[in-house]
């Protein structure tokens, strides 16, 4: 997945795969250009990711600041926070499977 300026889901490919919105736009405009690559079926879950709106709970300012920090090489990862979250997620998953 690629983080971009829009809410579109960017699929890592050679350009042969387009989002449903791009395919619909191309079909509506009468585009007949042949696409290179193979046909891909995208699950409804992935399609819904491409349709997330501004009400999706994403903090755009935080995303922009993180993107800038990554570009500048100043982004740091809090390993302790990541480990704590992984342990909490594992504990939650185990509690669900135990009933």
* pLDDT averaged residue by residue: 74
How helix-rich are the residues, as a percent range?
40-55%
Helices, by number, come to 4
- Give the biggest beta sheet: none
State Rg: 19 Å
Q: How many individual domains?
A: 1
The SS-based structural class is mainly alpha
Q: What share of residues are in beta strands?
A: under 5%
Secondary-structure element order, N to C? HHHH
Shape: flat
Protein name: Negative regulator of flagellin synthesis
Keywords: Bacterial flagellum biogenesis, Repressor, Transcription, Transcription regulation
Region (Disordered): 21-43
Family: Belongs to the FlgM family.
Outline of this structure?
The chain has helices at residues 20-28, 44-50, 60-72, 79-98.
Please supply descriptive tags for the structure shown above:
single chain; 99 residues; mainly alpha
Topology:
Layout: H1 20-28, H2 44-50, H3 60-72, H4 79-98
Describe what you observe in this structure:
49% of the residues lie in helices and 0% in strands. The model is unreliable at 5-18 (pLDDT under 50). The chain is an all-alpha fold and 99 residues long. The longest helix is centred in the C-terminal third of the chain and has 20 residues, at 79-98. The chain has four helices and no strands. It has one domain (20-98). This is Negative regulator of flagellin synthesis.
């Amino acid at each position: 997945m690629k983080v971009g300026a829009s809410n579109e889901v960017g699929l890592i490919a050679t350009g042969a795969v387009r989002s449903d919105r791009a395919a619909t736009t191309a079909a509506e405009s009468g585009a007949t250009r042949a696409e290179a690559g193979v046909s891909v079926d995208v699950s409804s879950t992935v399609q819904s990711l491409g349709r997330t709106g501004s009400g999706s709970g994403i903090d755009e300012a935080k995303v922009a600041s993180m993107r800038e920090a990554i570009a500048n090489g100043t982004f740091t990862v809090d390993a302790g926070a990541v480990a704590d979250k992984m342990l909490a997620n594992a504990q939650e998953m185990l509690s669900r499977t135990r009933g």
